[in-house]
Sequence to fold (334 residues):
Amino acid sequence: MDVSLRSVKEILAGFRDRYNEQAEVLMSETKSESPVATTSPDMFWYKQMPFPAGKVTAESLSGVEGFPVRADDVFVSSYPKSGTTWTLELVSRILAAKHPEIDLELPLNERAPYFEFVHPKRNIPACEVFKEMASPRLAKTHLAYSLLPRELQEKRGRLIYIARNPKDVAVSFFFHYQASTFLNRSPDFPSFARRFLDGQVVFGEWLAHVSGYWAQRRHPRLLLLRYEDMKTDLVGEAAKIAEFLEEDLDSRTLATIVEQCSFTSMKENPLVNWSNVKTWNHEVSPFMRQGEVKDWLRHFDATLNREFEERIAARMAPELKDWLCTLFCECRES
Fold:
């Protein structure tokens, strides 16, 4: 019996390795070269990925790979500024509809801790705090797929990934950097956009991050979402999430959740809008700024748009390009 169990584990490990190899191949095809680690004091590098220094540490990451994942755990992942908070609040409320032990009066970052970070209140790895939580547990992460807990990659728990047009991501990320008290600002948007293209921002290059998850798109416990679809049909996307989580909600409950998760409602909700977060300067920019699709048209000129097309669109895997499809809009000439 022990031999049989060991054999099964070896087979599963083999599948995991092959999945990761495929992801690495895809990422190598989409990247011209790996980003060179900078010595910027706001970034801490770990396994070729830059993290916000002090917020993420070697200690906070040390327990991630071998973290024991429960079958009903839910992880929401994204590249930053892709709709993570929006998706987390939606998932939290969907789960709470049938699990009253989830306290919706708690701030979102307590209901769904930032998995790879140092916990801001207890000053210990947030994954250790997550370990103590009652099921069903919900976590937020910006980790590359290859850095996720091994058991999550091996199809234990559920994983939701949200992607967004990288041009809109870059704009939102620029304002995030400007308002954050622990990240190094850029003097203007074009200079930040080129840092973004080079992967010299926290969590690295957008294309590598998205491609890593896209390579796992046939993972039976991974749900891929697009920010633009949520803007167009939040009811439909909420229903898709509920089905993925195997939460049977009636249409009235779902409609109430969607109303509570509208951009207007969330922007006014102190439990999700970061209004009490001390490391954020709300005079520079609110955390929930605009939440629009194609806001990039206000900030890109034709030259910068061409750079994004050449650096991202031209190197993107065709199927991924078809799935995102929001890259290719006409840009206003400067």
